[in-house]
Amino acid sequence: MVVLTNTTLEQITLPVAPKPSTYFSGIPVINLAQPGSETLLVRACEELGFFKVTNHGIPMELMARLEEEAVKFFSLAQVEKERAGTANPFGYGNKTIGRKGDVGWVEYLLFDVTSKPMSHTSLAFLEEPSASFLSSALNEYVSAMRKLVCEVLELMAEGLRIQPRNILSKLVMDEESDSILRLNHYPPCPHLQELDCSLTGFGEHTDPQIISILRSNNTSGLQISLRDGSWVTVPPDQDSFFINVGDSLQVLTNGRFRSVKHRVLANGLKSRVSMIYFGGPPSGERLAPLPLLMGEGEQSLYREFTWCEFKSFAYGTRLADNRLGQFER
User: Fold this and answer.
1) Is the dihedral of CA 118, 122, 128, 130 positive or negative?
2) Pairing with 22, which of 40, 116, 146, 236 sits 20 to 30 Å away (CA)?
3) What pLDDT is stored for residue 122 in this prediction?
4) Could you say which of 182, 263, 272, 323 is catalytic?
5) Distances (CA, A) of 60 to 118, 238, 274, 282
């Protein structure tokens, strides 16, 4: 796999962080095939905003195939990768994250996920014969993610005891739903072993969408922030999926579910490859706390806004900014 050179590292200023702590043992694990999982799921969203799901029904072969195709792409020469188009926002990105100066030890592919096959997106390179296997793997993976995100959101509705069952899932299953898929590659950085710190691969942030589903290889690096502000390291598990509550879901539940702040630290010796599906609502969807979840006399913590309005604001901020602060009452 191609490793970005030390010279490249010296030419950019990347934030550093303390070396990862021991693995955090308190990550909730939700067995989706187990009765009562909806109750555990709601508790995890309230207490941490983050959990792991097992028995999810997604074939390991499908996950491994997309990872393999991602590794092949990121192993190409730099000039070949850049043929995918500069991420603006979709396409290939390298070190630069967003439009406000955030950087990280990461390269990535970002795809617009619609109801159409991936080959019909604006990324022309997916239509080339050389990208046929990647395009096929992406289409199958996105289809599987849509089903999984629908199942998880409907279990949330059950656990919250609100009807209809698809009150949340319909927001991400609509033909106009604004969902994206991100493939991240964090190259190894061997000379970090000499330093008493870690390089930031992806800086601390929350996800603006409703829900995020992450799967990675068996390399560590993902950290989440607990309620007391401390950072803990998530044990890697390439067979399972990790799920984040997003900012939009925090709004819909009037703060009952909390959007989790997270980051990724680069590994000194091993590459980390991750795939993240972000489930977002349609552009014109108006977001506000669901009346069914509001207690008698309870006041909304947020003013109503559209997803388009929030997305435009969020993508114009720095990663670590409190994006919801602008929309609080």
Assistant:
1) negative
2) 40
3) 56
4) 272
5) 21, 9, 14, 30
Predicted structure pTM score: 0.91
Strand partners, 232: 224
* Phi and psi, residue 186, nearest 5°: -105, 100
- Segments of the chain scoring below 50 in pLDDT: 1-12, 119-120
What pLDDT does residue 8 have? 45
Q: At what angle do helices 132-160 and 37-47 cross, to 10 degrees?
A: 90
Q: Is 83 a catalytic residue?
A: no
CA 148, 149, 150: angle at the middle one, nearest 5? 90
Q: What is the pLDDT of residue 62?
A: 97
* Confidence at residue 199, expressed as pLDDT on a 0 to 100 scale: 82
Distance of CA 152 to the CA centre of its chain: 15
pLDDT at 4: 41
Q: Enumerate residues 6+ apart whose C-beta is below 8 A from 100.
A: 316, 317, 318
Of 153, 131, 162, the residue nearest 209 (C-alpha):
153
pLDDT value, residue 46 = 97
- Alpha-carbon span 325 to 41, nearest angstrom: 26
